[in-house]
Amino acid sequence: MTKTLWTPSRRRFITSSSAAALAGLAAPGLAQTRFPNRPVTLIVPWTAGGSTDMGFRALAEATQKHLGERIIVENKPGAGGTLGPAQMAAGARPDGYTLAQMPITMFRLPHMTRVAFNPLTDFSYVVHVAGYCFGTTVRADSPHKTMKDLVEFARANPDKVTYGTPGAGTSLHITMMDIAARENIKWTHVPFRGASETNAAVLGGHVTAQADSSGWAPLVNAGQLRLLATWGKKRTKTWSSVPTLQESGIDIVSNSPFGIAGPKGMDPGIVKVLHDAFKKGIEEPDHMRVMDQLDQEVDYMDTATYEAFVKTMYEDMRQQVERLGLRRS
């Protein structure tokens, strides 16, 4: 039986009232002062140069012409992608000028350990954007040619294989843990803050392998890294010769949806202005081209649909944490 760690099914969240709900939003704060009238900061909670950073810089560029002001990307990596959004929730004014990417870790980590934020009450959700393309890579000169090679080496050499991810509690870390449990092997997790660090670690021989989203793409395409497997339901368009985990004998599908939110208490009219601009930005050809290069599947959801999706995702993550025994006291 296939275990799907997270594959969103957006149809169950789309209701006929979504469009009407958005259309009826009032904009009391906009009557007196035009929004925006200065640049908007978009927090990317990962290091510069990774797939999230590249995708969001393309989205910011595509969206700002529709918003009428610049969107400045600010990298705030740490805590598995939760540091930036958590700091925004704790300290930013709900005026629409500070936003953040919301990775799936925001909905999983509260079930694993004590955190200073509540994803259900501390954020104003704006728009859902896409899902990642995940994969496992090794250095191009590695003796491991396939995912099976890596697993069998780990089986014969317990704890000798090390792998880097963007952080503890991320989907990459959780999936690698699940693979180890299913295959009855032991390998060692080494957390980093994003793809630029995990890329450097595997290239430098500091870790055996890397489990990350497609920030490894330029290095794979340049022949510096070898892509052993991708983690989706089917092979990617860009690396169609590379098998999935399922095709490699590991019956798991794993991806990770993400969107954009601001601090709680944002004016509904401001949320609508941001939503409408980002929707147009998501659809811009230049943004879509970058997403294709990263093999990230665009999965737009409006504000009301995204809010409903968040509630279900939060509960799904609770069940996942309980199933894998990841709760820390």
Can you write the helix and strand succession as a string? EHEHEHEHEEHEHEHEHEEEHHEH
- What characteristic shape results from the CA principal axes? globular
Q: Roughly how many Å apart are the termini?
A: 31 Å
State the CATH architecture of the largest domain: 3-Layer(aba) Sandwich
CATH class of the largest domain: Alpha Beta
What value does the Rg take, in angstroms? Answer: 20 Å
Secondary structure layout plus pairing:
Elements (H helix, E strand, L loop, with lengths): L2 E4 L10 H7 L16 E5 L6 H17 L3 E5 L7 H9 L6 E5 L2 H8 L10 E9 L2 E6 L7 H10 L5 E4 L5 H13 L4 E4 L3 H9 L5 E5 L3 H5 L3 E6 L21 E3 L2 E7 L4 H16 L1 H10 L2 E5 L1 H22 L5
Parallel strand pairs: 1-11, 2-3, 2-4, 7-8, 7-9
Antiparallel strand pairs: 4-12, 5-12, 5-13, 6-9, 6-10
Helix pairs in contact: 2-9, 2-10, 4-11
Report on this model:
The structure is a single chain. The chain starts with a strand and ends in a 5-residue tail after the last helix. Strand 2 (40-44), helix 2 (51-67) and strand 3 (71-75) form a beta-alpha-beta unit. By secondary structure, it is of the alpha/beta class. The strands form three sheets. It has a six-stranded mixed beta sheet with strand order 3-2-4-12-5-13. Helix content is 38%, strand content 21%. The protein folds into two domains: 7-22 and 33-132 and 256-324, Bordetella uptake gene, domain 1 (D-Maltodextrin-Binding Protein, domain 2, 3-Layer(aba) Sandwich); 134-254, Periplasmic binding protein-like II (D-Maltodextrin-Binding Protein, domain 2), CATH 3.40.190.10.
